[in-house]
């Protein structure tokens, strides 16, 4: 069958798609990846065929500039619904409306139109769309393809909509937006435009969210692009090793981090361990001398580094957190307050596999104390090992190919007319 992946224009979102795309290709299926031109080079390096759609998103230019009409992406409302006071109809309506405005900006009409044309021209049987590329759902529904969401992190949208429907609310910002987009192609709005016909979910249930969606669980398989083994990653550490990372999205897409590097390094100096910090020159600028126990590397694939580590300090990003779960590494999470990072930190702490630093203006001594706790208290390592077993017990990308084939056969529908 033909499978079209649609990705959000950020490398971290592409990376979660690559192992599943390769599993489908290895099984003999024809795979293409569509996205805004920003990702052309990144997709080319994966070995998959890239189809550019729309104009470059230039996401970093839209961040934190609400006064000039750009979308303040970091102001995306809290859809977590983890607090009772945020489960009211009024709060959810506002949160969904803000989210809709953000996603409309990330899925401009010309991009959606080109995705629809692509679906009618190439006729994919299945469209797998990133949880932020709703244009993939519109194109699939217009062209009769089966379609599935591939989650990046927690399923906040399905959870929030499930909570919102309980209020029997007559208005629906997502329906207004996506219904209008679908109407251009003679297709009625359905909930699948927001949540897919089914959802491919790489988050283990113990630290995930239960919703009413049809789910295909899959093991998280890290993909970080090209990686080179070093002496450090080939030999066991001679003392406790701690990874310190703020991920790639902050520095490469947003252009800055929301977690203070200065406080992180100050805390690192007070920890009796070797700290491997994945920070670049911009992140280090103006911070003064690097502590003697800190080794700075501009980039290192976490899948290579974490097997040698006793703990990880991270910002709650999906790639960092999921890779730590895979390798059974206890976590100290300093959430950058983007999207689901605070909720994930809470779930990791609740599972006993890490510590959630609640204060966004955390003092360095508090962070250092949290790291010492996860290094010395064996319960954190035991809980992390339990979650690792859960991750390894999920079907691999290759294992889910038959399920994707069956679901595609059940959900696709013939469409003979082209787009209007």
TrEMBL record:
Q: Which InterPro entries match?
A: EryCIII-like_C (IPR010610), EryCIII-like_N (IPR048284), Glycosyl_450act (IPR030953), Glycosyltransferase_28 (IPR050426), UDP_glucos_trans (IPR002213)
Sequence ranges assigned to domain Erythromycin biosynthesis protein CIII-like C-terminal in this UniProt record = 263-405
The Erythromycin biosynthesis protein CIII-like N-terminal domain, residue ranges: 22-247
Which Pfam families does the annotation name? EryCIII-like_C, EryCIII-like_N
Keywords of the record:
Antibiotic biosynthesis, Glycosyltransferase, Transferase
List the residue ranges forming a coiled coil, or say none. Answer: none
Establish whether keyword tRNA-binding is in the entry: no
Family per similarity comment: Belongs to the glycosyltransferase 28 family.
Per its record, how is this protein called by name? Answer: Activator-dependent family glycosyltransferase
